[in-house]
Each structure stands twice: as C-alpha cells, then as structure tokens.
Amino acid sequence: MMYSSLKFIIFSIAVVLGYYLIPKRGRPFFIISINAYFCALLGIKHLAVLFGSTLLSYVCAFLIQKYHSRRLMYVSIGMIVFALFMTKFGTVFGFDSILIPAGYSFYALQMISFLYDVHYAKIKSFSFIEYVQYMTFFPILLQGPICRFEYMQKEFKKNSSFQFERVKAGALLVLFGLFKKLVIADRLNLFVTDVFNHYEDKSGGILLCAVLFYAFQLYSDFSGCTDISRGVSECLDIKLPLNFRNPYFSLSIKEFWNRWHLSLSSWLKDYVYIPLGGNRKGVLRKYLNLLITFFVSGLWHGTGLQYLVWGCLQALGQIAESIAEQHFLWLKNTRHIGVRLIKRIYVSAFVLGSWLVFRAHGVKAAVLIAFRICTNFFSFSGLYSCGLDQKDFVLSLILIIGLVCCDLIREKKSEVRQCINQSSYFIQCCVFMILIFGILVFGMYGSGYNAADFIYMQF
Predict the structure, then answer these.
(1) Comparison of pLDDT for 389 and 446, the residue scoring more
(2) Number of alpha carbons in the 13 Å side-chain half-sphere of residue 32
(3) Helix axes 128-136, 27-42, angle to 10 degrees
(4) At what angle do helices 390-411 and 204-235 cross, to 10 degrees?
(5) Mind listing the pLDDT tens digit for each residue in 166-180?
(6) Hey, what long-range contacts does 361-369 have (CB within 8 A, 24 or more apart)?
(7) What's the whole-model pTM score?
C-alpha cells in the first residue's frame, strides 16, 4: 500500500473518519494501531523491526536521561548506525539474507536525533505512547519528511476537533501530490529510464533532455510524496514540516541545500556538521566538516560509488563557491541582475551535472554521458522513440513549464493552495475536479512501470 495507490487513499479516508469519530482520549491508541496495521501490510518482519527498534531506543533514551550518560548515548547511536550500515551495505559484504526494513533509512535518523536531543536536554519529557506515535506515524514512515520528536510531540497534543476547511485543504494537497507523481513524474520516468538504460545509442541532445527530465522527475516525485504525506497529516491537524522550498530558484549551491530535502539537510547540519565543529574551528576545518557531512549524505543515499562522488561534489561545489566569493566580492551582490543571471546559470549547470552522476549507472557511465552531451548536444535524432511519442513529449514539456510557474508563484510569496482555499466554493470545486480529471486521464497507468514506487523508496 504505497502512497500513490488507490488503496492508500481509501485507507487514509477511513483513518481520518475514524480519528474524528472516536473519543479524543483514544486517539493516540487509534493512531498507533493504524500505524501498526499499515506497517504489517508491508510484512510482519518490517513491523517487528520497527516496534523492536522503537522499544529499544526508548529504553536507551530513558537510561540516558536518568544517568546523564554520554557513553550510553554514543553506544546507542552506534548500534543504530551499525544496523543502518548493514541494511545498506550488508549485501556488499556477502550478507545476502539481511532484512532491509521498509523506511528504516528515515526512522533510524529520527531515533538518532531523539537520543541525541534527550542527552543534551533538548527534550525535557517524553512518554512511551508519544514516542511510539512519533516513530510509527504512517504518513512519514516510508519517505519522511524526517521529523524531530519535540515538534511532533506538540502536534500530537493538539487533538483538535473536525474542521471541514482544514480537511479540504489537506485533501487538496494530497491531490497536488498525486498529480505530481502520477501525471508528471511517472511520465518523465518513461523517457528517463529508456535513455539511461540505452545511453550508448543516444545522441548528446537526447541525453541532455534525459538529464533535464530527471531533475524534474526527481523533484515532482519526491515533493509529490511529501505533499501526500503532509496532506493526509493535515487532515488530522498534524502539520508536517516543509520539505521543499522551490529549490530550482536557488542562487547558490548552499542555498539549494537550504531548499531541497529540508528535513535531511537540517538533520545533517544539526547531528553531523555542528557536532564535528561546524564553522567554529577555522576555515580549513569548516571545509573538512562540510566534506564529511556530504560524504555521510552520499553513504545514506546508496551503496554505489556514484553516490559517494555525488555527495563529495556537493561539498566541493560549496567550498569552491565560498572561495570564489572571497576573491570576487561582486558575486555577493545578488541584487544585480547580471550577477543573478550568472549565479542561476552555474547553479543550474552544477545541479544538473550532479543529478547526472546520481542517476547514471555508475561513474563511468556518467562521464561518458557528460562527454557526449558536451560534444554532440545539437543532435536529437530518434527523440520520439525514447519511451514517449511526440504528444507525450510535448505534454511533458508543458507539465514542466506548469510546475516551474507554480514554483515561481510561491517564490513571489504567494501560496497557490492558499489562494485556491480563499476563493469561492465554485472555483474550489472546479480545481478539485480538474485535478481528479487530470490524474485519471493523464496519470500514467498500465504496464512498463509501477506507479506505486517512489524514487526515494530505494534510499
């Protein structure tokens, strides 16, 4: 029961109805039961790992708080990191039978942040019920966003009554997410998969299109999943933190990571970069800490060498950017239209290049693709035989332009969903119908792909 499936939508509707029908005192137990049922559908082994990890980390947190033991904190976090390492790299060392729990990459980070914050007294009090809710909350279980306990503790305590306007706003966000996933991301996926699987036979122009399409596929896929998670949670009056903030409008690589996958970026900053010393121990130590932080990010994303290269590229890009701004002060003048244009060009080129490394089947393939793009990017022979015919290709371009326009509106401090919710009920009904119609008619269903698989499920 993945987030884009009809079963998940029906399941979520039933959860929202049940949540508001039962007495408020019973809601925490209702949510925990629902979370357990959701995880059990993925497999009893996954359920056992989730609740076993939750119980063990809770006991460790209790002991850490009671004895103020830093050593116990390190040991507890070390066990979680080791388990995470084995789930990702166990097969590399020949452990083929290792269970890879669904969503472990995400809730392992939540356990680490919880133990760290308990030791440093950022979390003053916590109950077992609150912690189980936090660890097993089904909208964020498989793909995040990665939430902090103190934030979710406040959200769970609201225990609000039913409000039609809030549920309607949440449902609209769910539809936005489904549209991004089923209409945009899965359509782009057909082209991207075909080109990257047969890159040896493709021209530079087609390869460039595939890299560009992948950038928007990944964005619409992952942000679409986040929208679904946030929408379902909002229907329960549990507001999840924003995970994307118009990342492709960034004027620097550093700014990009303050807009892309915010929950992971802030986690890495607070629990890797700052504990290493951050920028408090000189420039060289700052650069080293940055390199280690993004190396960890690469490890978290996958086992292939390209993920490590991709992570190091993010750090080296920011280091080079910092050095350039120290020697060329005019680069800091982002109010100048020329400077903004230069920054947008190099940030876009860097991001596309890093996505190429991220998506390609290995570093060697990425280098070959990059070389062919640079030497033959005017050739588009066979463009409409790469998974999409001419109509679908043109539709993909239109959808990308529409996605960029929506982000541009948000960038101008005007939230699209808020504008819709403040309009007349007739307009709201029209928007709902258009989205539903678009998902049913233009959504990618059928053979050749699995609409239930979000890209970040593999990480």
Answers:
(1) 389
(2) 15
(3) 40
(4) 50
(5) 999 999 999 999 999
(6) 361/196, 361/197, 362/304, 362/305, 362/306, 363/305, 363/306, 363/309, 365/199, 366/306, 368/199, 368/200, 369/199, 369/207, 369/211
(7) 0.92
